[in-house]
Amino acid sequence: MRRLLFLNGIKAFEAAARSGSFAAAGSELNVSAAAISRMVNLLEQRLGVVLFERKANRLALTAAGRAYQSGLTPIFDALSSLTAQIMAPSSMRVLTLGVGPTFAMKWLIPRLADFSTVEPDIEVRITTGGAAVPFGDDWSCGIRLGDGAWPGLVAEPLFAADLVPVCTPRLAATLKRPSDLKGPTLLRVSHAAEDWPLWLKTAGVTRVTARGTEFQYYGHALQAAIDGLGVAMGIRPYIDDDLAAGRLVAPFALTVPKGERWYLVYRSFQAGQRDFTAFRRWIMRAAAQSATRNSQRRDSIKKDATM
């Protein structure tokens, strides 16, 4: 027989552990902070275990509290997702994807028509995501650039994040070697200040510093490069379609690993849900196809560079 001890207390504890305070948990559950504190105290008494260390300005989980919360949060997430599915109209199949704006614009959206052909009954909803944005409660999955270590999430690699300078064919014709690059023409991305120094160091260029226009997103810098403003640091897979269409070219054969990868991220309970499974199967195949084309393109660039 299943034994559930004081479910309201369990909910109060999980919300407080996840949010870090009784006040935030109370706001989430529409009760007072004092009520949350009382329910957690009663839960601790019934369990015979201390879950929180009460400190002056914050709560700190004990070892038992951390273990309990790490198991409870996925259970409540799964329950929330299941409830949403049951409440949705039977004809509605929705997959919500958290993804950064440049990834959505430069890689995902141009390929969504193919997914719609394969799975016409699934509606994909795209919301702003990225490594700096918390994984949304309503997300089915997300796509993130990083090291793959996101607590509470499964992370499956999609792409290597390789760096390569890109520009218009006209500008590329003036660049015979990396030392021809000039700082004022090197377009920058504010949150990726390490990209140009990493590539230039690997290329053996020591007297060039990127001083070109700075943009908030890679997508803005790449569009500026397409418009002839300068040389942008391209990151795969953002540049795949622009290179294939000839809007941009890579004037040098050298590509440098950024030190991070792109991952499909999701909560473990999603693995058994059919719409997510369909999307996962599709994006894994699409990512593999992109990797094959990139490898062929790199081989072609290297061959042209040696001729």
TrEMBL record:
<dbReference type="InterPro" id="IPR036388">
    <property type="entry name" value="WH-like_DNA-bd_sf"/>
</dbReference>
<keyword id="KW-0804">Transcription</keyword>
<dbReference type="Pfam" id="PF03466">
    <property type="entry name" value="LysR_substrate"/>
</dbReference>
<comment type="similarity">
    <text>Belongs to the LysR transcriptional regulatory family.</text>
</comment>
<dbReference type="InterPro" id="IPR005119">
    <property type="entry name" value="LysR_subst-bd"/>
</dbReference>
<dbReference type="GO" id="GO:0006351">
    <property type="term" value="P:DNA-templated transcription"/>
</dbReference>
<comment type="function">
    <text>NodD regulates the expression of the nodABCFE genes which encode other nodulation proteins. NodD is also a negative regulator of its own expression. Binds flavonoids as inducers.</text>
</comment>
<dbReference type="InterPro" id="IPR000847">
    <property type="entry name" value="LysR_HTH_N"/>
</dbReference>
<dbReference type="GO" id="GO:0043565">
    <property type="term" value="F:sequence-specific DNA binding"/>
</dbReference>
<feature type="domain" description="HTH lysR-type">
    <location>
        <begin position="7"/>
        <end position="62"/>
    </location>
</feature>
<protein>
    <submittedName>
        <fullName>LysR family transcriptional regulator</fullName>
    </submittedName>
</protein>
<dbReference type="InterPro" id="IPR058163">
    <property type="entry name" value="LysR-type_TF_proteobact-type"/>
</dbReference>
<dbReference type="GO" id="GO:0003700">
    <property type="term" value="F:DNA-binding transcription factor activity"/>
</dbReference>
<keyword id="KW-0805">Transcription regulation</keyword>
<dbReference type="InterPro" id="IPR036390">
    <property type="entry name" value="WH_DNA-bd_sf"/>
</dbReference>
<keyword id="KW-0238">DNA-binding</keyword>
<dbReference type="Pfam" id="PF00126">
    <property type="entry name" value="HTH_1"/>
</dbReference>
